[in-house]
Design a protein that fits this description.
The structure is a homotetramer. Chain A is mainly alpha-helical. Helices cover 64% and strands 4% of the residues of chain A. Chain A is built from 18 helices and four strands. The first copy, chain A, has helices spanning 7-27, 33-42, 50-60, 64-78, 80-83, 92-128, 148-172, 192-203, 217-243, 272-293, 305-333, 338-345, 354-365, 367-384, 388-398, 408-414, 424-437, 443-446, and strands at 133-138, 141-147, 251-252, 335-336. In chain A, helix 6 packs parallel to helix 11 (305-333). The radius of gyration of chain A is 30 Å and the shape is elongated. The interface between A and B is large, with 113 and 112 residues.
């Protein structure tokens, strides 16, 4: 991802557009074929002087102007006649925006591939831990038993939707930008239509109904869709990092040499993958806001808004891709401590089964009364340190009319975590089934694993 | 939209969920049918004491807890037995999130309807002004001629994509949330699956593979998609407001009594519709960022993130809907001054035809030489105040080898704006064709107009 | 805070400005004294019809226009002559912005008072727990011992800086806005200067060098300063909520009836105060961004930017004040479990003393070698479950040249948490000393407690 | 600014901290003086291998860890004994945060110097154009006459407050960060206090009461204060860019070779300086939000929040500094067209004097009646194209009881823009006086110019 949005690749993609433009125009008889051959042969970032390009770009206001100057000089050195046809009829924004589209196509492919790999790892976790009981936590407090498979399936469920969104993006957001100075392609005369069509085909980009230079919903949609992906990655990272806390220790990030150590504390093993994803989840949303604020672009080319996009969208993709890669590594090598999950469940001496008891009682005495009764028993259990099961058993002895109806056997079953994980397994199976079904024609998701 | 997210409707939607829950559970034999009848009959916001509800909600941490308390009391007053089955097996978040989904369904429908009406108005403008020449502006400076039809088609083009996005949202983002306290539906035992299925059907919401309580990509997607719509509305409002400036005066917002006046300056007619859309385009993007940051939610129910959504998403929809409604009114009644558009074109004494001349010359002397020659002529035209056409004609007399090749007739045609609007009409037609084709099965867009 | 920014108070503050304007103009002989008396007597929100005001405001584009209409009608009903002088020479923005300044003055006072109370509670915690040893955590992993007093002093240290920032705000950000329609006060002729000066004195607001209607740095500074306060509150809330996790349980939020319960899980005690602060810490930063984006306001009155502020700044203050109030309550009643802090320290069987050992060894064998040796011992301790102290003692027996130099007595002292809390107490004392010294002239901070 | 936050300078500042640390510890007798001499002599970024540093940093999770490794190796190559004392008792964050403080000190100085230069240019414009009449615009429509001097004074007024804020920042936000692994400096034993004090003195940074590693209000305050500066720069850029529009043309950005040209349109002169500032005003506010969201940092070192700051704060300073530099150049060379300002005033045929007439009439017939009468006259003037002055004169002939009281002479004076600029000159003088008075002890502002 760093490479895709690095200086070399960025310039190369703009040159790819110049090359395709020349070849398309030659094909349509707009410029001489010989000129196109020479131009295309020189559209190579290796020929570009990046230092002087950078300096000139700062002055010119964009990167395309000095790039065209350099390219024209290169062509002129070979054939002055051909040099006349460099960048023919195009404007800077055509080259910058279409070059960006080529970068985005690559970037979305990389992200989708990494996402497929993450999903394979998550599906593996969901399957393997379909019956691994752990405590569910709400408000960061113990709530009720769940399974780790259910938690992993929840992560996967969101990621499957993100793959669908990515597929929509890939189909709908990418498009050729080609409009000339004010979007009319006037400089190309009647050949403008055919040139645009051939150019789109050459670059394998959809041909839009009209240039979108000042309508930025395409790039904003990329930004915001990727932004939601990062949010889901951040949620997964938050969960994992909370579960790696020293006192909880249900999960550990995969170890790797030189990874996650501390300069001052040799015993530390830090969840560095989660840190990357969490940092991205802090940084990307405001960058998405930047892209949305920047959409308010004046007339046929903006003053400030377009420029604000230039570094922002690549940064969004780099941060997101970095977060995704880290979470893929984390998910693939995640160390799960089933025993610790089981023992943490008992930390509250049975309080987490209060709902089970409450629901069982409610069938007899109503939800409200049962809730009050169990809440009171919980309070005593907490105060005395006596487990809830014992507290209730003693209550039953004292007043058979209340909890007495709950016999010892029923209490045993009510306090068995495996007995109170509800639809966990069925839910996991449904998500895995959706995962297996995959996206139509997308091998990554539909492969069995 | 204010009504949909107002207190009354918000509570009613939560009560609709409680009602549907009771009826679904009765249908599945989980609670007595008689209880469901009574519960359902009392799920009416008119019965709710909103003042005490608000106070209790502040203490309880959410709105569902005290609402269930009030509903239970209402039912108990009728039938204490039935009261036991209020909110059976559900958790607060089930009611809040599913209620939100019902609100979102309404809200997206309102937005889509308004968007269809906006698009009809924009299509009308594009069609009517297919040949209305105006200046295209880049960097807020005169660039080249375009048509107002092309500008309107550009707005429409983006809005058509937004309708497609809305259709995707309506199909993919809405879903039942039903998981019980920790997402396992454990409290409902083996009947959980059937109840969930019937509940989804009763509310006409898709049944997801598993509860999404802590996976917030659905609501984040709604927020960010609506955010991109607001960006496009803001772009349109920026364009219009710039064109209504006193010195430019190509457009005027429709007049309405009491609208756009000034307390101190009786002559003012302010573009108040644009102001609403522009304010929304400043306010909504950061709110989208809030929704994305809030996605990092802990475990099975978050501490802070979920709560951060509660007022944010409704605010996004209200601001967006308000902006959309204003721009619909503005587009439907927009006053277009063709003469002013034509006369503003001449403000630079022909400089805006420089590219046309440059391209015509380039065919003979190459792009770079032509560009330099025309740039120099422009500089003299600006310095002397002599129109560019005259400047060039004089040049031709002095040095026939340079611009001399451009005869008087060719100059006339080069300086005719209708002759240099390129593909404007064809582009307008393509967008209108897409508009006519409409979304499959969506009457608003496909209707002829 | 809800009251300060509620509809009634908002309108009252605008009426206060109208009243002061009339009285100031009468004092300067610009309008008849009798008119001012009548106008001032009717500047009471109780006389206002809020329903029709709200409807008219939506149409007029701001609240001041219809408010002046209602006020004028009220005055006219008493004295038609006096009604001529309502809102004399002012513009809507003068009333709205100056009314806002009066609200901000109240709001900042409330916040400062609550902050003083929070600081008193934090100072109490820092003092009481100066020697309460707990584990310090970095990357959410056990690191080294600290004291809870040091943690509380860290919170306090930031809050003391926030009080200083608030004092700066109160002195520098508030100012009269009075410029008339375009900021020149032309409508008041030569009396403009004296009227402005008397008006400022009447409202007890600083008189700025010129109107600041389109220079929004004052309100942006309020927003961003309050935004940093919320960040610090969020940090404190994150710390506390992490320490209330079931497995950690070092802290508990104060209990209160109806507070923090769960509808489905009777045993839960949720950290609801922290949730409020954490939600605010998610919501406020993007709202600050809104205020900053909105600063780009056109000319003498903006189109969109100013309007974007109207609801945003009050929301920032309400959310911040709510978060502050919650954290004040939490700090004042925080339940601290010293035993749990002590026992959690031992969770890693001594690994947290690795740095102490490493530093002691480093004096003999150098930092790098010591680090490597201790890291290796830690790895074995983790793998075998044998405490680090034992592991090292055994190592010393095997190879006296390595850790052997660390005798049993030194090991005892190295593994004593009280012996490895460094400057904790001195740091606490320094912060408490700064707290006692207080802000000059501000009773809240300088009072002994 | 690029240099200050470039890789080389960033690493050098961290090495400066390591050097100062070694020297301070030697001075306090904590490490051998000979070791400190060697360490200090090698703390030079020229010795560092940046490529391997970058790779190792990605793995280690921060830049300090591999930098210490390289520095230790460099020292060891000279003296293995001295190598033991590299980075003695410090933690990565001490080096990174204190290095950042050194960078911020430089950056704030650069910004303040540029701001002083901008202010000098603005003061010059305000003084020179104290009497240059132009139209004031509200809601982007002509409102009332102002002077260009008043507009420039408004920009200056905000910038003077920003210099005061910068001075506060420089005094209050910078501080040494030195706490060791968990903030207690335990590893330095009793010498910790003296070492910290000497280190602070050596680096000429304030010594805080306690380490602020997890309390990020200092850096958040820098970010948000700079963010408000960018907002004011954006406002100035928006004003200027609107005034450079082709039809308005009251201002032109200074010309420079290669600056603001267009690849396709040789006649264009784009306001590129404004574009830079406007792009910054879109990009910086969300980055400020990032810094505020990132403040919620866990315990003694965060997981994600701290990392999110690393690139964000430098980016804020770079974008802001770039915007400031551009606006300084723009202000210093701004081309002001007084004639155009005067002629644009007449574009509405006198409507902008409506308020003057309205106020004059109001003294006789009351504000409301006068407003209605003038509004009606304006409407007719617009409809007929007859100037307002003529319209009113004709009205006076027809009905002397209405506007008749306004004689021809009074009408002349009411329609003279110089007669209706109110306090413009006095306001300019007040701002210039404040500018001259300057900040106490800050030469930049108090110098005469």
């Amino acid at each position: 991802m760093l490479a895709i949005f690095g200086d070399a690749q960025r310039v190369q993609r703009m040159l790819d557009v110049e090359s395709a433009l020349a070849r398309s125009q030659a094909q349509c008889g707009v410029i001489p074929a010989s000129a196109a051959v020479i131009i295309a042969s020189l559209c190579d970032a290796d020929h570009i002087d990046f230092v002087s390009l950078g300096e000139a770009a700062a002055n010119a206001g964009n990167l395309a102007i000095p790039l065209v100057v350099q390219l024209t000089a290169l062509v002129a050195a070979r054939d002055t006649e051909a040099a006349k046809f460099v960048h023919w009829g195009a404007t800077s924004q055509d080259i910058i925006d279409t070059g960006l589209m080529l970068q985005l196509r690559d970037a979305l492919l990389v992200i989708d591939t990494d996402l497929a790999a993450l999903n394979a790892a998550l599906a593996g976790l969901a399957r393997e831990h379909r019956h691994t009981v752990m405590i569910g936590r709400t408000w960061m407090q113990h709530a009720l038993p769940i399974t780790f498979g259910l938690k992993a399936a929840g992560w996967l469920d969101a990621m499957l939707r993100h793959r669908t969104r990515l597929a929509t993006l890939q189909g709908a957001s990418l498009a050729l930008q080609f409009g000339g100075a004010a979007g009319t392609l006037a400089s190309l005369g009647p050949e403008a239509g055919p040139v645009a069509a051939v150019l789109a085909r050459t670059l394998d980009l959809p041909l839009p109904d009209l240039p979108w230079h000042a309508q930025r919903d395409r790039v904003a949609e990329v930004a915001s869709t990727i932004g939601t992906l990062v949010g889901s990655l951040g949620k997964m990272a938050r969960d994992i990092s909370l579960l790696t806390q020293t006192e909880i220790a249900e999960l550990t990030e995969p170890a790797a040499s030189g990874r996650g150590g501390s300069s001052a504390m040799p015993h530390k093993r830090n969840p560095v993958g989660c840190a990357v994803a969490l940092a991205a989840a802090v940084r990307v949303p405001p960058l998405v806001a930047t892209m949305l604020v920047a959409m308010v672009q004046e007339h046929e080319r903006a003053l400030g808004g377009w420029q604000a996009e230039w570094e922002t969208l690549p940064l969004i993709l780099q941060l997101s891709s970095g977060a995704l890669e880290q979470m893929r590594v984390v998910a693939a090598g995640l160390v799960v401590d089933r025993e610790r999950m089981r023992s943490n469940l008992d930390a509250t001496h049975g309080l987490v089964f209060a709902e089970a008891v409450s629901m069982a009682l409610a069938e007899r005495i109503g939800r409200t009364a049962a809730h009050a009764l169990v809440e009171e028993a919980c309070r005593r259990a907490v105060a005395t340190g006596i487990p809830l099961r014992t507290t209730l058993a003693v209550d039953a002895v004292r007043d058979p009319s209340a909890t007495g109806a709950l016999g010892s056997e029923q209490l045993d079953s009510l306090f068995d975590p495996q007995g109170y994980i509800g639809q966990s397994a069925a839910m996991v199976d449904r998500v895995l089934h959706t995962y297996q079904a995959g996206l139509p024609g997308q091998p990554g998701a539909s492969s069995k694993d």
